[in-house]
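From: lab user (bench 3)
To: helpdesk
Subject: output format question, protein + methionine sulfoxide

Hello, I'm new to running complex predictions and I'm not sure whether the block I got back is the full result or only part of it. Here's what I submitted:
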Amino acid sequence: AQDNLSVDQRLLKICETLEANISYYNWVGFYFKNGDKDELKLGPYVGEPTDHIIIPFGKGICGQVAISNQNFVVPDVTAQDNYIACSITVKAEIVIPIFLNNENVGQIDIDSNTPDPFTEADERFLEFVCKEVSSLLK
Ligand code: SME
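Helpdesk reply: Thanks, we reran it on our side. This is the complete output you should expect:
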């Protein structure tokens, strides 16, 4: 049955599984490079609906990761100047890039309602998830 799922359905299942199993993952979603434009487009996600469907490269935590190609862990979102607020309940955020053929093609974005919850274990785990996602995209 798994074989009949589309890529987006599989990505949504990943979001659902992460949100349901890790108490401090409260909004879990994917952003992908929007064609050949210098912007990200929201993909599958779980959590509160967001107005930020399109994010220009450089804007917010997500837009910065699109350019830096690096993990971005934000223990306290109120301490960030270049931050796009989606919900007043969010205290912290982690964004991990997804690489396909060495190219930064998107990212997983996780918001937490818990202050400073993300550790290096989250980074290693989410890097693994992003590698799995990359192979789904091939
Ligand atoms: N906070 C993100 C925007 C996306 S929302 O978290 C869903 C940012 O600053 O890029």
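A quick orientation on your result: Residues 2-137 form a domain with the Beta-Lactamase fold (CATH 3.30.450.40). Let us know if anything else is unclear.
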